Every structure is written in structure tokens, then in C-alpha cells.
Amino acid sequence: MKDGMIRAIIEEAGMQSAYLNHQEIKTIYFGGGTPSALPVSDIGLILATIRQHFIMSDEIEKTLEANPDDITPENVLAWKDVGINRLSIGIQAFQD
After folding, report:
1. Is residue 65 within 8 Å of residue 38, measured between CB atoms?
2. Where on the phi/psi map is residue 34: left (φ > 0), alpha (ψ -120 to 50), or beta?
3. Taking all residues of the chain, what is their mean pLDDT, rounded to a whole number?
4. Distance CA 31, CA 55 (A)
């Protein structure tokens, strides 16, 4: 199921490549459904596809919504390596 969703996102990026009419993308936000649970390789593949089809600003903000439990030194470095430069961290619950 996850692989089908990744393929659909990649296909949609290609189909929408003319949508912005050559305007620069200034923000990419991976959010909803805990995208920090995705393998880093999938995030990198999506970002590579976006780079292929759209013009990205030199100062683009690439945000990943992250579950606090997913934030480890290893994950932070891996996310940074694929281009994520901002994390959005929300309260998951007010109970342990």
C-alpha cells in the first residue's frame, strides 16, 4: 500500500509539472499521516522527482512533520542528507 502511494505521488508530480508555469517552489511540506515513518529513501525519491519537474528556490524550505518518537540522531542526519531542512513537531497526546 505504501509503495503504491509513493508511486502515485511521483506520478502526480510529473502530471502537474506545468501547473506552476515555471514559478519557483519556495516550500515543500511533508505532513499528515506521520511522514517521518516513511523510509528516508522514499522521501529522497519524492524530492528528486520534484526537482526533476519543478524549479526550486535556492532558499527552499523543505519541512517534514515528525512524530517525536521518530526523531533520532540517525534519522535527523538522514533527513538532512536527502534535503529536509526543517522539522514540524507537534504534541501527539497529553497522556503517556
Report:
1. no
2. left
3. 93
4. 21
